[in-house]
Amino acid sequence: MAKTIPMIITNTDILVKDRETDEFHVFEMPGITPAPNIPFYHCFAEKIAESQYYFKEFMKKLYGKKPSKYILAIIVPDDTSKLESIFINEFFLNSGACKAVAQMNMALALSKDEEQYISVSKSSRNVTLEYIKNREVAVKKHYDLNTCTPEQIIRDAHIMHIDVGYDEIPIFVNNFNLNMEDFFEMGELISKKKFLKTIAQIDVEKI
User: Fold this and answer.
1) Residue 17: is it exposed, middle or buried by C-beta count within 10 angstroms (0-12/13-18/19+)?
2) pLDDT, tens digit (0-9, with 9 covering 90-100), for 101-131
3) Is 12 in a helix, a strand, or coil?
4) Is 195 helix (H, G, I), strand (E, B) or coil?
5) For residue 146, what is the enclosing H or E element?
């Protein structure tokens, strides 16, 4: 089986796991100027060939001259749309920097132990509330970053699914992007360090 390389698309950049350690390296595309409330990687569409070239060169430095023998396990923000998901897969698959790609959103990667839990996260445009059951998204709700309130989201978290009303279901606050101050009291805080440790040895068969 081809070796898997964990990779994370954050609110601001792309992190790729080191070949030898559990450290992650930042890939930044030169000449990209993100627009407000739009994921930065949308800019790659304006310079697809150039962006793919720089990413392949970046991967060569980390994994040698033939990165195309690896599988990229891509972790994406929770509010990634289906169209964005397709673009992400196609962009990296056609970059020549991997053999194949697999993708999952951040909420699904928060815990390897809990069979069901609630996740709350924040991107550059939305707050996303999800109920995860048996490693699948059972319910997902998006809230506009400019109009939602923490009180509304906390209230909705307790009524978003019938299971939530009957079981003691943990709530994970995804603070990977250091932007969840308003939700610290809502549940267990998942720090960037803890999240990176969780996915450093990711199993692509479970994505």
Assistant:
1) buried
2) 999 999 999 988 899 999 999 998 899 999 9
3) coil
4) helix
5) none
Beta carbons of 24 and 17 less than 8 angstroms apart: yes
Sheet hosting strand 116-122, strand order edge to edge: 136-144, 126-133, 116-122, 171-174, 188-190
In angstroms, rounded to a whole number, what is the distance separating the alpha carbons of residues 125 and 37? 5
Contact 174, 109 (CB under 8 A): no
pTM strictly above 0.85: yes
pLDDT in tens, 15-64: 999 998 889 999 988 888 878 888 999 999 989 999 999 999 999 999 98
List the structure tokens of 182: 């308003």
Place of tokens 């707050």: 127
Buried b (16+ CB within 10 A) or exposed e, 157-195: beebbeebeeeebebbbbbbbebbeebeebbeebebeeb
Dihedral pair phi/psi, residue 129, rounded to 5°: -115, 130
